[in-house]
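Tokens in:
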């Protein structure tokens, strides 16, 4: 069975259907990117995966447990699913290393020394080892996002979810974050990434999912989505993107 299986998930807000019968399987080691216009339901889908948003119907199986079953320990499952948001959401009153240690000591009940070692390990992985005692507000957006990634990695999750991790960044800072994510992909981390960075999606994905109006329009290899798709919606989305590129 796949690591995560989304089966016929639907979700409405105020009677407006936002996700319509979405099904999706994610295998261990896969990198999946979700692309699609703003408002197509990408964030809502990601939030349903770790139950930050509750599906109205359907099932989500993760590590064999049904997340939509009220007896499943959601907090325990969330520890296995790291999430990185567009806005880095670091705690501004804590230093870089304290941000990374917090859940280790408070949730995993690690002792301080062990937590510190683990935090340093993952801050080193994202190239932030020289900033561990800094306050988040003294860092650039790219640096803050790398700390947010390290903080999620500290929990040693089975799955990482990224929601437009570079959208809030100055264009010059995008690559340092994408490179960290590329390194994780090389190491075999299972990831679901919502992004508008199309070359990145093309390069990194095992599978790309195109969403439109709450539905999965098409899923396939980067070649299929970008080059050989016969689906008019896919061709239209990719075509519009390419046009924008040429204007630059
Ligand atoms: N908490 C919410 N309450 C009401 N409407 C919401 C909520 N979250 C998202 N929506 C609506 O759902 C639609 C899809 O949003 P979203 O999942 O954020 O799309 P995307 O991430 O693809 O831009 C949008 O029309 C948005 O306004
Ligand atoms: Mg979104």
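Residues out:
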């Amino acid at each position: 069975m796949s690591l995560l299986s989304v089966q016929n998930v639907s979700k409405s807000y105020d009677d407006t259907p936002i996700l319509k019968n979405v099904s999706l399987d994610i295998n261990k080691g896969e990198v999946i990117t979700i692309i699609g216009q703003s408002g197509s339901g990408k964030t809502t889908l990601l939030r349903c995966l770790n139950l930050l948003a509750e599906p109205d119907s359907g099932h989500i199986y993760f590590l064999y447990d049904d997340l939509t079953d009220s007896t499943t320990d959601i907090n325990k499952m969330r520890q296995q699913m790291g999430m990185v948001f567009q806005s880095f959401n670091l705690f501004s009153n804590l230093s870089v290393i304290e941000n990374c240690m917090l859940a280790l000591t408070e949730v995993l009940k690690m002792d301080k020394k062990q937590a510190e070692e683990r935090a340093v390990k993952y801050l080193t992985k994202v190239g932030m080892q020289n900033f561990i005692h800094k306050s988040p507000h003294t860092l650039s957006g790219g640096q803050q996002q790398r700390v947010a990634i390290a903080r999620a990695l500290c929990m040693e999750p089975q799955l990482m979810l990224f929601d437009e991790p570079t959208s809030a960044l100055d264009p010059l800072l995008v690559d340092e974050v994408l490179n960290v994510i590329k390194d994780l992909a090389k190491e075999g981390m299972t990831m679901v990434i919502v992004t508008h960075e199309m070359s990145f999606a093309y390069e990194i994905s095992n599978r790309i999912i195109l969403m439109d109006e709450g539905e999965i329009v098409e899923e396939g290899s980067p070649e299929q989505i970008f080059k050989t798709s016969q689906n008019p919606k896919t061709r239209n989305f990719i075509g519009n993107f390419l046009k924008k590129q040429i204007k630059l």
